[in-house]
């Protein structure tokens, strides 16, 4: 990081010693995973810069936004509509939780046998090392799984939490209920920001977030080519950065990158070899800086062509309709878009398995790797349905269960390599 941000971190109440330990781990990891890749697109430079300034410049921008009276809202799930927060002049940041931290403190308030993501978000707060967390005026939780639902009660002891109840079926009554949840959320956001959401502000915000999703779709379309112009690891990084970067700047940078990638495709400049197995990654989201499985796959001769995950297609594949005149009509379109997210909290969740079959065809995938976090019941159990459907369609699948630790890396690498050997072109 270029500047001295310590005074800013201190003013946010961070534990500087613990924070230093985190920063000392991140840059070497990033160097190994990202900077050693060959033949990277030049325009990845912006995303390297944003990652490098993850606790610096972006936090400074959020602080400036707050100094002008703006609010910052944190979220952990792609069910939280950014359109609503933005329409009230707020900034929504995805709180990452992709690294094991503060475990000793966490195990005082949570059971040991809980998924890494929940442990991580609680650890970030209890150990006071996340400047995003400390910037937040409000956290939005949800009831997607039991672990999160109960953990948010505890988190509410430290920071105000608004919990969205997520329907787990898609019947008409569930859709109506979800619309009502979003009406309540809109009111809460108006109260916290002190700003009324108008049809104009909501329409503008829908268009801006649609533009962000569209550019991510444009990027992903390019990954269908035989010549892959970008690695799966770089694509994942961009999908992770989408959750916290400035919306308009991010959209414009990804557009610029896509222009470079289109040229690379035309000139036949790929990051893959013609015989590299093409893999679709599916499962629980991979929050920054969780790149373990992607790195293992791509350092084993394969290439990832798509992420059927919340840090991936689930985040940007559907757009909100831009029709509608009143706030309620637009809110209904927002509700309709979000309820189609193929999260394993839904029962049944056939949309996800059908989508995987479609993606495997469109992206010419040779196999699918289903990765669940250990102790994540929804995804670990749903792996059974994924396996069954893919088997019916003759698509090879590898199921893995892991956490944020590195202890299983050797064993995972062996299993991934055996799978790649089996499906090799
Ligand atoms: S997997 Fe489900 S709970 Fe997790 S971020 Fe995605 S939608 Fe939310
Ligand atoms: S990974 Fe699974 S258990 Fe963990 S928060 Fe997400 S849905 Fe819940």
Architecture overview:
The chain has about 425 residues and is α/β, with parallel strands linked by helices. The chain has a domain at about 5-200: Rossmann fold (3-Layer(aba) Sandwich). It is about 55% helix and about 10% strand. The protein contains 19 helices and eight strands. It has a four-stranded parallel β-sheet with strand order 2-1-3-4, with helices on both faces. Helix 11 packs parallel to helix 13 and helix 14 packs across helix 19. The longest helix has 24 residues, at about 200-220. The chain is globular, with a radius of gyration of 21 Å. Bound molecules: iron/sulfur cluster (SF4) (2 copies). One iron/sulfur cluster binds near residues 117, 373 and 378.
Which overall shape is indicated by the principal axes computed on the Cα atoms? globular
Q: Major beta sheet, specifics?
A: 4 strands, parallel
What CATH calls the topology of the domain at 6-200 is Rossmann fold
- Tell me the quaternary state: single chain
Strand order, largest beta sheet: 2-1-3-4
What's the average pLDDT? 96
Residue share in β-strands: 5-15%
What's the Cα radius of gyration? 21 Å
The level of helicity is 40-55%
Bound compounds, please?
iron/sulfur cluster
Structure summary, number of beta strands: 8
Provide the structure class.
alpha/beta
Spell out the blueprint of helices and strands:
Blueprint (H helix, E strand, L loop, with lengths): L5 H6 L4 H20 L8 H9 L4 H11 L4 E4 L6 H6 L3 E4 L8 H7 L6 H11 L4 H5 L2 E5 L3 H10 L5 E4 L7 H22 L5 H24 L9 H10 L5 H21 L10 E6 L8 H7 L4 E6 L4 H4 L10 H12 L11 H13 L4 E7 L3 H16 L4 E6 L6 H15 L2
Parallel strand pairs: 1-2, 1-3, 3-4, 5-6, 5-7, 7-8
Helix pairs in contact: 3-12, 6-7, 10-16, 11-13, 14-19, 17-18
The structure holds iron/sulfur cluster (SF4) (2 copies).
One iron/sulfur cluster binds next to loops.
């Amino acid at each position: 990081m270029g500047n001295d941000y310590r005074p800013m971190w201190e003013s946010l109440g961070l534990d500087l010693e613990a924070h230093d330990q985190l920063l000392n781990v991140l840059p070497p990891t990033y160097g190994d995973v990202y900077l050693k890749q060959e033949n990277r697109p030049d325009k990845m430079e912006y995303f390297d810069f944003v990652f490098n300034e993850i606790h610096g410049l972006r936090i400074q921008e959020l602080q400036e936004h707050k100094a002008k009276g703006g609010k910052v809202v944190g979220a952990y799930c792609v069910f939280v509509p950014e359109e609503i927060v933005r329409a009230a002049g707020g900034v929504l940041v995805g709180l990452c939780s992709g690294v094991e931290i503060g475990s000793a403190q966490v195990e005082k308030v949570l059971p040991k046998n809980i998924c890494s993501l929940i442990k991580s978000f609680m650890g970030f707060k209890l150990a006071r090392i996340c400047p995003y967390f400390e910037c937040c005026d409000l956290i939005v939780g949800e009831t997607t799984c039991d672990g999160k639902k109960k953990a948010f009660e505890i988190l509410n002891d430290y920071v105000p939490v608004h919990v969205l109840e997520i329907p787990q079926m898609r019947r008409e009554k569930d859709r109506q209920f979800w619309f009502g949840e979003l009406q309540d959320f809109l009111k809460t956001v108006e109260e916290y920001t002190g700003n009324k959401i108008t049809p104009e502000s909501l329409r503008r915000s829908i268009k801006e977030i649609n533009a962000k999703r569209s550019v991510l779709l444009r990027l992903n379309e390019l990954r269908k080519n035989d010549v892959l112009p970008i690695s799966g690891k770089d694509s994942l990084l961009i999908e992770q950065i989408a959750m916290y970067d400035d919306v308009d700047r991010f959209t414009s940078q990804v557009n610029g990158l896509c222009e470079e990638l289109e040229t690379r495709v035309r000139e036949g400049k790929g990051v893959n070899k013609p015989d590299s197995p093409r893999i679709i990654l599916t499962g629980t989201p991979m929050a920054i800086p969780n790149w373990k499985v992607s790195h293992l796959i791509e350092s084993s001769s394969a290439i990832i062509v798509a992420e059927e995950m919340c840090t991936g297609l689930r985040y940007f594949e559907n757009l909100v309709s831009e029709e509608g005149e009143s706030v309620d009509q637009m809110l209904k379109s927002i509700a309709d878009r979000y309820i189609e997210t193929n999260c394993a909290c839904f029962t049944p969740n056939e949309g996800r398995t059908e989508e995987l079959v479609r993606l495997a065809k469109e992206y010419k995938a040779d196999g699918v790797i289903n990765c669940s976090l250990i102790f994540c019941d929804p995804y670990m159990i749903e792996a059974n349905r994924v396996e069954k459907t893919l088997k019916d369609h003759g698509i090879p699948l590898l199921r893995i269960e892991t956490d944020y630790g590195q202890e299983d890396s050797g064993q995972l690498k062996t299993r991934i390599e055996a799978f790649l050997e089996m499906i090799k072109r």
